[in-house]
Specification:
It is built from 10 helices and 8 strands. It is α/β, with parallel strands linked by helices. It has a single domain, classed as Aldolase class I (TIM Barrel, Alpha-Beta Barrel). An 8-stranded parallel barrel has the order 1-2-3-4-5-6-7-8, surrounded by 5 helices. The longest helix has 16 residues. Bound molecules: 1,3-dihydroxyacetonephosphate. 1,3-dihydroxyacetonephosphate (13P) binds next to β8.
Length: 253
Amino acid sequence: MSGKKLIIGNWKMNGGIGHVELAKAIIEGVNGVNAKNVDVAICPPFTLLPLIGQVVAHGKVSFGAQDCHTAASGAHTGDISAAMIAEFGAKFVLVGHSERRANHNEASALIAQKARAALDAGLVPVICVGETEAERLSGDAVPIVLSQIAASLPIDCTPEQIVIAYEPVWAIGTGRVASTQDIEEMHKAIRDSLNSKFANAQIIPLLYGGSVNAANAEQILAVNNVDGALVGGASLKAPDFMDIISAAHSIVG
Ligand code: 13P
């Protein structure tokens, strides 16, 4: 991604009204760091999008949602459309997070439709992929992730419209991080496969996610083809999240 880093915090199903203070602390922190080559975003639960939209308007942090429906509107009780998310000024929406793939049986074809809906609403889909531990142990992690990507990308998308996040399922919330060799191998394979699809695939930000924290961020973010991080638990503590942002800053300035 041309020397820039993108750090996205995924708050998952955490955060009530009090977490607006967390967003404010992150915005204040980011405003205080002259990190022109580091982009920062937070993805709170849907319920906080309007409030977070108001507070981020005063800073350099952008925000997104954690999922969207494939349709723009209609009889889909309990769902939220990409257009509704965009209305509050959001930039991103995560699609295909492994927790949605596992807990809601979301398959890659559906993810591609969600990503298409995001693009139609003017959002940047962060398309999440990753192998399970059994798939890693079988030795097939790379082809499995590449096939997830091939099936999850919306038809006719362009490199400047999307972000891809590689999150090994077994590394999420476990404190177990993939080795830098495994991350490098996977990110290179992803880049190579995107290069065969797009003329300028090098501009697609490839994020790593899975137990990224203040202590390991610098090492992970220095890996070839790692353009940023998708951070879960550590994004819920402002000092930890700021340390990850500083690690990115120390690499790209
Ligand atoms: P953790 O950073 O808590 O492992 O979560 C990663 C993740 O799933 C981000 O989307």
